[in-house]
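As a point of orientation, let us examine one representative protein, giving the amino acid sequence and backbone structure tokens.
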Amino acid sequence: MVITVYEYSKCSTCRNTIKWLKNHKPDAEIITVPIIDSPPSADELRQLVKLSGLDIRKFFNTAGEVYKAMGLKDRLPSMTEDEMFDLLASNGKLIKRPIVTDGHQVTVGFKEETFEQVWGGA
């Protein structure tokens, strides 16, 4: 199994996610993608959102400085989905991290309970 993790190396949540995956999925090949330097494209984000079953708004890093500086809390409700995808793809700091996918399922953020359900144990 190949698992891709869109992450930021300075993010403790991302580091904890990778550690969890290595401990619970020792046979998996874990590929890390630096989300700030190489954010997923709008098309890749569409696929990730679709596989996750989540609303696109769940992919926004609402705690981030860029999100707050851009006033997105007030702007998102009037944006189209296409505009949201383009905005996320334009700046990796806007994307909630980590995003974990095996091409069939996707999780956003790190909650151990969710990881146990979605990614299972060793």
Remarks:
- The chain has six helices and four strands.
